[in-house]
Amino acid sequence: MTMGDRIYLFDTTLRDGAQTQGVDFSVADKVAIARELDLLGIDYVEGGWPGANPTDDAFFADPPELRNATFTAFGMTRRPGRSAANDPGLVGLTSAKCDAVCMVGKTWDFHVDVALNIPREENLELIRDSIALIVERKGEALFDAEHFFDGFKANPDYAMRCLLAAYEAGARWIVLCDTNGGTLPDEVESIVRAVAERIPGTSLGIHTHNDTDNAVANSLAAIRAGARMVQGTLNGLGERCGNANLVSLIPTLMLKMGYETGITADGLRRLSHVSRTLDERLNRAPNRHAPYVGESAFAHKGGLHVSAVEKDPASYEHVEPSTVGNRRTIVVSDQAGRSNLLARFREIGIEIDAKDERINTLVDLVKRREYDGYAYDGAEASFELLARRGLGEVPDFFRLQSFRVIDERRWNARNELITLSEATIKLDVGTQSVMTVAEGNGPVNALDTALRKALLPVYPALEGLRLVDYKVRILTPNDGTKAVTRVMIESTDGYGNRWTTVGVSANVIDASYNALHDSITYRLFRALGTGTPDASSDDR
Fold first, then answer.
1. In this structure, which long-range contacts are made by residues 537-540, counting pairs with CB atoms below 8 Å and at least 24 apart in sequence?
2. Helix (H, G, I), strand (E, B), or coil: what is residue 432?
3. How many Å separate Cα 201 from the centre of its chain?
4. How far apart are alpha carbons 304 and 353 in whole angstroms?
5. CATH of domain 399-528
6. What's the CA gap between 351 and 470, in Å, rounded?
7. Residues 294-341: pLDDT tens digits?
8. Over the range 296-308, which residues count as b (16 or more CB within 10 Å of their CB) and which as e?
């Protein structure tokens, strides 16, 4: 491996990622994600398959302008019995608004015999004709060799002839696909080396799936063997177990292996943002433990460990967190000591003397509350409020008088069984006493709606606040229905900021209210500081 070697990055999130169970991109989603990928510095952005569905048709009809990336369409080689120029699929690709086309074709003799049911020589003609037409009409063609590793293991000579047919027809990249994700890294490396003896590595790409949890490792193995282009998706989206995760591959290639990519140091610092933006578009909770970009990727727990981290971060962090747009997190928990608290205070901007007696009080309070069931290592916002309240920095933006939640399960006029929740809440907001009633999809939603209905006229900053995740854990399962529960709520302000709060009680609604109260208070504290606005202010 030589410093400065160029690796090209090909993102397939908008096509392969759309095959993830539960993921459904809108045209607006595709436009936003494509722009983020372009700003990041990705070389190729594959937009989808023109003609496959209305979403892709609309996207390719008016694609976004990309400054760095080559906008690419996906399709397949011509069908048997049709010329390339008259194949409907290829006509759609050549007329699509794109700069390149990535085309998938068969390279496993078993599929040619059984799925296509044509002579093997004819399959070679399909590949040649299709690639040649795309090169002629669009200028750049890529060939995805479907099930290549299975095909090579079964019949290496024929699989290689398929690759050479595409390469000799003018394909810029020959992409070796581990379509079912079953190949292991040592196999990938040896097979890619064998291919690189016939086709230069500067024309070889790798496309892996994660069915054995080896997609990233397989991609790196292919690059070690000579491949110079890698395909993958943001956050490893993809069908079944997903595709190779570009968010892990990019910093590994650049920071660990010394390869050059189209991503600059400034672009690399956008990586965490891009990863979380995708989750935000999909309304998915980000993986806290994701390498490089997860909230826990550079989290440290335990007093002795934290002291060492502060003295020598490089001993405990394999890269500097800021290089990938992430940050160090000092976790506070029942294992915490003064070092944890002091480090966490600095992180959230609290200036306090290390000898301040209140630190010992806060350490004891954190340990006592975690013994009662609170978990501050996963609820950073609640910890910050706890600390700042202990230092007298958090005002009472509102004070609860009482709340009542009613659930009703009944048959409606259409003879449908429905469940309705209604919450009534009484609050003191400033000098005013406010009572509101709201219905919701469940008691927590009704309570949340009633709370914000009362507070929005005074605090417009709550306009974009919404709950994005809600988790309940039973802490004392042996107590049956009397068990103590812990509720974790994740919230967003509509501007890409997320925070997590926690509430504990033997009553799940009470625990939910505690977490909701912290969530709203945290948003208001971040927006207003220690002040309280009048009803006309807009503090967003």
1. 537/460, 538/460, 538/461, 539/459, 539/460, 539/461, 540/460, 540/461, 540/463, 540/464
2. strand
3. 30
4. 20
5. 3.30.160.270
6. 32
7. 988 988 765 555 556 666 666 778 999 989 998 787 665 555 566 667
8. ebbbbbbbebbbe
Helices and strands in the chain, H and E counts: 18, 16
Strand (E) or helix (H) holding 450: helix 443-455
What is the distance between the alpha carbons of residues 48 and 472, in angstroms, rounded to a whole number?
38
Q: Domain 8-257, CATH 3.10.20.810 — does that match? A: no
CA 36 from chain centre, in angstroms, equals 13
> How much is the pLDDT for 1?
43
DSSP H helices in 283-418? 303-311, 338-347, 358-371, 380-390
Tell me which residue of 210, 301, 282, 284 sits closest to 248, measured CA to CA.
210
Find the radius of gyration of the CA atoms of the chain.
Answer: 28
Contacts of 82 (CB under 8 A, 6+ apart): none
Listed residue (424, 430, 426) closest to 397, CA to CA: 430
Tokens of 292: 């490089």
Amino acid, single-letter form, for residue 219: S
Which is it for strands 417-429 and 204-208: parallel, antiparallel or unpaired? Answer: unpaired
146, 105 in Cβ contact below 8 A?
Answer: yes
In Å, how far from its chain's centre is CA 238? 12
Q: Higher model confidence: residue 505 or residue 4?
A: 505
Rounded to the nearest 10 degrees, how much is the dihedral formed by the CA atoms of 131, 135, 136, 138? 120
Most trustworthy range by pLDDT among 1-5, 27-31, 282-286, 347-351: 27-31
How is the beta sheet containing 466-474 ordered, strand by strand? 466-474, 485-492, 498-505
One-letter amino acid identity for 105? G
Q: What angle do CA 245, 247, 248 make, to 5 degrees?
A: 70
- Distance (Å, whole) CA 164 – CA 122: 14
Q: Between vectors from CA 127 to CA 194 and to CA 94, what angle results, nearest 5°? A: 125
Tokens of 341: 């608290």
- The ranges assigned to domains in the chain are 8-257, 299-371, 399-528
